[in-house]
Write a structure and sequence with these properties.
With about 210 residues, the chain is an alpha/beta fold. It is built from six helices and eight strands, in the order E-E-H-E-H-E-E-E-H-E-H-H-E-H. The protein is globular and about 50 Å long.
Length: about 210
């Protein structure tokens, strides 16, 4: 007997994560350009949905990620942000450091429940708000999350995390961040950190593996 699968529908009648093929089929049948994929666990399916189809295939099949400027080396007068999450969802935290000095600029958490993508999104918006407050809108921000960068640009955190007593503090921060993005403009460039060539982003929590 085959193991249970969860199905991500990126493009269909109602995009989301479904726990049966029949539910998935109803969302994609007859839909031109429907995009979907099966996963062995709900956490993997949620991560893939948050990444989006392009982000998922970019991450797992080596498609070219958004190019960072100044090929060969990063801009050192910049902020780098990162998030850490023990599980998906799980206990989450995020922070920002200076690329040149590794000085920690802010550190939020641990928070009871979130996802890594949410943490990356919140870290970027927190950095944007802080730099605007300090009149430092020239300073670039680096993130190693293509998903979070796209969420910031679209002013929407596209997460499936459901509101519970544990997740409420994080989801309240998400609402505040989305509100800030809709009510403010920013000039800080946001760049993808080139991990293959530059190593781990300076804000990395060092908990991989």
């Amino acid at each position: 007997m085959a193991g249970k699968k969860w199905y991500v529908v990126w493009s269909g009648l109602e995009p989301g994560v479904y726990d049966s093929w029949e539910e998935c089929r109803q969302q994609i049948e007859g839909v031109k350009g429907a995009r979907y994929k099966a996963f062995p666990s709900r956490s993997q399916a949620m991560q893939a949905f948050e990444d989006g189809a392009e982000g998922f295939y970019r991450r797992h099949y080596g498609s070219q990620e958004e190019a960072a400027p100044m090929s060969g080396k990063p801009i050192f007068a910049a902020l780098a942000v990162d998030a850490a999450c023990s599980g998906n969802p799980g206990v989450m935290e995020y922070r920002a450091v200076r690329v040149d000095t590794h000085q920690e600029i802010f550190h939020v958490g641990p928070l009871p429940e979130g996802t890594n993508n949410i943490g990356e999104f919140l870290a970027i918006v927190h950095a944007l708000a802080l730099l605007k407050q300090r009149n430092m809108e020239h300073l670039p921000i680096y993130s190693d999350s293509v998903t979070a960068i796209s969420w910031v640009r679209n002013k929407r955190c596209k997460t499936l995390l459901q509101r519970t007593p544990k997740s409420a503090p994080v989801l309240d921060l998400v609402l505040r961040a989305e509100k800030w993005l809709h009510e403010h403009t920013y000039r800080n460039p946001i760049y993808k950190w080139d991990t293959p060539n530059w190593g781990e982003i300076p804000a990395d929590f060092g908990r991989k593996g």
